[in-house]
């Protein structure tokens, strides 16, 4: 028999006893009232004792009692015991997490919904200058670099932001935010000082080597031109040798020019002006039409007449490379469409072709230096794999991004998205200068 059945049986027997005694003595109602009062006082006493026990957290042994109240005490005591066991286990896990994060070489900071600091490890205190007393403080009030604050407010944490350490300008940090839970975020700061130093050394090396190669290449080209002028055509071996040497020298010259342009895009400070992009695209398309001797192959669609703030040479190189790629990797009679238009979020320049297309696996890598898609082609396409790298770095200098969509065998579309904030209104008519650098060609 269950405890509730026993309790119910006991109450029923008490009422039967009162009924019998009341029938014998004639005091049924007073006895019934007395029994009810006794049961009520007993329950109030038990409730009061339970409340006093639970108010202490139920840590002590529960009071001795019988019946249903003994079962209630037992169940509550068991729940509290299991809760205590789980809490102890959770505390152990949290302590292990804290010990492991304290040992991390990277700074780790847990941020709340309002960017307040919930917790920070030892490395965060050493490279970000945070103190234990800073808990609860908003991190933008402590780390006041504009790039970091914009990154934190943007909500777009796909890429890390590079900034110097707040307490040591010689240390370079790559800061990334990872969202988790209900509005919580984990801020990670990695020391990339050595990586940035090696990257600067690599850029300096490439720039120096490229610059030093220009002089011997110029001398070599001069002598080859002299040999070509001296060639009377009697020796086919000499003629072919000079032509091949000139072709390879020209290819090397293009490579050096591309590397020097990439170095300038990566290192030189921006010098911006309001660029008349529709006029720039019109000029680029005319130049390529003259080279192709086919003005109808390139279709220019100017859906907007907006100008943007930027660098003319960088934009010219980027747009020329995209158009050159589309022409090179399309059939000779296939049209190429160039568009300049605007939507609610960006101003867009796109180049669309009906060429061979790019496989999905290759799209993330086509903007890497010297990367070329290896496929069988009916004709050999010259290229060194730097054009799209130039495009990527030129767009980065304009806070723009390159989006590539492609279907193998159907064609590709390369779109440059410029933020609306780049739009400008020229005070005077913008005059485009003649191109001061060669059109750098590339392959996918």
From TrEMBL:
The chain crosses the membrane at residues 12-45. It is found in: Cell membrane. It catalyses: ATP + protein L-histidine = ADP + protein N-phospho-L-histidine. One of its GO terms (molecular function) is phosphorelay sensor kinase activity. GO terms for cellular component: plasma membrane. Keywords: ATP-binding, Cell membrane, Kinase, Membrane, Nucleotide-binding, Phosphate transport, Phosphoprotein, Transferase, Transmembrane, Transmembrane helix, Transport, Two-component regulatory system. It holds the Pfam family HATPase_c. GO terms for biological process: cellular response to phosphate starvation; phosphate ion transport. Its EC number is 2.7.13.3. It comes from the Bacteria. Residues 208-422 form the Histidine kinase domain. PANTHER family: PHOSPHATE REGULON SENSOR PROTEIN PHOR. Member of the two-component regulatory system PhoR/PhoB involved in the phosphate regulon genes expression. PhoR may function as a membrane-associated protein kinase that phosphorylates PhoB in response to environmental signals. NCBIfam families: phoR_proteo (TIGR02966), PRK11006.1 (NF008235). This is Phosphate regulon sensor protein PhoR. It comes from Crenothrix polyspora. The gene is phoR.
């Amino acid at each position: 028999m269950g405890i509730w059945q026993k309790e119910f049986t006991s109450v029923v027997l008490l009422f039967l006893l009162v009924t019998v005694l009341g029938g014998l003595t004639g005091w049924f109602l007073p006895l019934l009232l007395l029994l009810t009062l006794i049961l009520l006082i007993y329950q109030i006493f038990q409730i009061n004792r339970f409340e006093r026990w639970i108010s202490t957290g139920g840590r002590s042994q529960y009071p001795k009692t019988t019946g249903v109240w003994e079962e209630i005490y037992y169940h509550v005591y068991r729940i509290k015991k299991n809760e205590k066991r789980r809490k102890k286990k959770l505390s152990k896990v949290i302590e292990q997490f804290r010990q492991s994060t304290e040992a991390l070489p990277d700074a780790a900071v847990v941020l709340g919904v309002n960017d307040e600091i919930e917790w920070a490890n030892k490395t965060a205190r050493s490279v970000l200058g945070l103190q234990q007393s800073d808990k609860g403080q908003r991190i933008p009030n402590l780390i006041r670099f504009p790039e970091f604050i914009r990154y934190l407010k943007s909500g777009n944490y796909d890429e890390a932001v590079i900034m110097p350490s707040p307490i040591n300008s010689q240390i370079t940090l790559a800061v990334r935010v990872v969202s988790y839970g209900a509005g919580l975020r984990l801020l990670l700061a990695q020391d990339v000082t050595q990586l940035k130093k090696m990257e600067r050394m690599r850029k300096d090396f490439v720039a120096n080597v490229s610059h030093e190669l220009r002089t011997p290449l110029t001398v070599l080209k001069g002598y080859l031109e002299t040999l070509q002028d001296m060639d009377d055509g009697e020796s086919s071996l000499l003629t072919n040798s000079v032509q091949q040497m000139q072709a390879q020298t020209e290819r090397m010259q293009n490579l050096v020019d591309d590397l020097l342009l990439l170095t300038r895009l990566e290192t030189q400070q921006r010098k911006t002006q309001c660029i008349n992009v529709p006029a720039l695209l019109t000029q680029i398309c005319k130049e390529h039409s003259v080279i192709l001797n086919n003005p109808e192959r390139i279709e220019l669609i100017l859906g907007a007449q907006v100008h943007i703030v930027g660098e003319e040479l960088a934009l010219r190189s980027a747009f020329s490379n995209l158009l050159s790629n589309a022409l090179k990797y399309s059939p000779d009679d296939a049209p190429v469409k160039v568009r300049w238009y605007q939507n609610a979020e960006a101003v867009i320049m796109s180049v669309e072709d009906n060429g061979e297309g790019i496989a999905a696996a290759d799209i993330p890598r086509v903007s890497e230096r010297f990367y070329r898609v290896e496929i069988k082609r009916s004709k050999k396409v010259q290229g060194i794999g730097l054009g799209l790298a130039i495009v990527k770095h030129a767009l980065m200098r304009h806070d723009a991004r390159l989006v590539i969509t492609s279907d193998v065998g159907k064609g590709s579309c390369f779109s440059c998205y410029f933020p609306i904030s780049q739009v400008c209104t020229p005070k005077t008519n913008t005059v485009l200068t003649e191109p001061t650098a060669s059109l750098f060609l590339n392959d996918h």
